[in-house]
């Protein structure tokens, strides 16, 4: 594929590398995790809810000057992030895939394709051409002779590539026990506790399925009073079935050869509280509430979901992309990647009106931004910003009050004189 071809031209060509040494003594070779937990519909619903919300973000390259003023440079990065980071994916699909890989492996790798040049000042300058999410089956950390940290990526196709670790965007989840990778101590997702709940949940669901099938299968026993062969028994059974189907009164007439005994099937099904308890344990594992899954959430519930679950991912994406994309010099002068979640369409009508009132009176929103917030298209000249006259600069207020105080003092002195 195209991104593998791009990767081939950029793998490590230096001297032979040896395995990196980790602080905890582990050999830094990590296999990616399988698909065990994804057989659960609840797990898939949780990750889908998170990935869908993250896919709405809008990554931007911004630059902040010494006075705190931000600008959006016109360049390759913002052009890539606006619509398609690579030729295979839109920006929404790109972000969604990153989240699925992150929750599947507790690690997500993104490979940036760039052209590098060195200026007269000796500084490296990069022009980025694409970004590809990677799904390696195994990763290995190495050091070259100069001590540079490398990462070797193995893929299902049998290919493997060695790159500088600093050139790979690495987003980690549950980063604690392992020195290099997110997840458990072995660099893989530690899903043992979750799998226990999922096995119980699966057993309950299988029991429900069997209970329903049992209640709809054997309904009674037809005892035939005479000795008949198999064909004769089949004929008697079909005769009984026709009698049941045609018995509008609910009374079935049988001759002396047949004796029908009904069976009372009373399968014991799991109560809804137990089912809800199992689902809630899975939902808490991913920090997703039932209203988020169903889409029937309030502003407060979504805000809690954002702060608890989405915001750490948003911050992690911005920091991981910025650290890898920009040189130290570029970071020092205020360059960074920010993942904006400006679309506030989830807000209720009352919340939107309150936001319009508060932000609009402060002059924070243009006319077109106000229209977009309530679902209307932009208008010509809509870049204008308006502000309420009820607000003024605090420095002017202080000057105004001091002038008023001096005027009052002068008047009192004149009266006393």
From TrEMBL:
One Pfam family here: Phage_portal
InterPro entries (UniProt xref): Phage/GTA_portal
Protein name, per record: Phage portal protein
Organism per entry: Paenibacillus aurantiacus
Source organism phylogeny: Bacteria, Bacillati, Bacillota, Bacilli, Bacillales
